[in-house]
Amino acid sequence: MAARRMTSHNPSPLQEGGAAEELPPTAWAVLGLLSFPGERTGYELKKWADASLRFFYWSPAISQIYAELRRLEALGYATSRRSGPEEPRAKRSYAITGEGRTALAAWAGGGRDAGPPVLKHPLLLRVWLGHLTAPDHLRALVAEHIAQTERELAEVREALARATGTEAWSHPQVALRWSERRLVAEVELAEAMLGDLAAPPAPGAPGAPGASASPAQGEPGTCPDSAQGAPESSPDPAPAALPVPHQTQPPHKPQPPRTPQPPQPPHPPRQPSEDAPTRG
Questions:
Q1: Helix 98-108 and helix 25-34, axial crossing angle in degrees, nearest 10
Q2: pLDDT per position as a tens digit, 216-233
Q3: Rounded to the nearest 10 degrees, how much is the dihedral formed by the CA atoms of 136, 142, 147, 149?
Q4: Residue 125's beta-bridge partner residues?
């Protein structure tokens, strides 16, 4: 059956006179998988990517692969054909075109800088936030990362063994050897980090025994008189209520000394009244 070309409203970059780099790197990666001899289905391309590309660049989802295949076919960089009735299950196979190979070679051999590698290390992000995690749990995460990396290293070595001896895969072998060396180094780095997490903090570091969280003498906001000999205070104390200002008392005026007065005689006895009867 003749290949069926899918249509697209987007003109080809070559038709526009544009450069091949108008496509995203994901599209070039899928087209690169098609550049090796033979035809492949989207599922087969996914398996090839998982056995090669994911060790050094990208692990695509099957939906991403099919989206890029539709784009490449619309641009004339790939063709597809549907299997015949003799196949127990209908499938569509893809192959690169001469125009697609020319565009891919122009992109791969471009003189521009390929750009710096992008590192996203989820484990290191967890370690960076280790002050919020229990130390035992953090060390367990690093140990699991080491085990996972060692499993991935075994997969790389298996892929390298399958590619060895195949002339068409001579350059992918170079990439796989680089991936092997990178994973070996990743295991060594993770083991060193596990040792760092097990070691006690350096003297003076946050969390080390005897480390003071109070500012040093002479820094802004410190009192020189209380810096020496004062007990260490807890870091960042909770703000207390504002103190109520003391009422200012007027200065005490000294009173002049009192002149001692002579003792007063007792009250004189009452004189009998003339009208009062007298005792006989």
A1: 120
A2: 444 444 444 444 444 444
A3: 170
A4: none
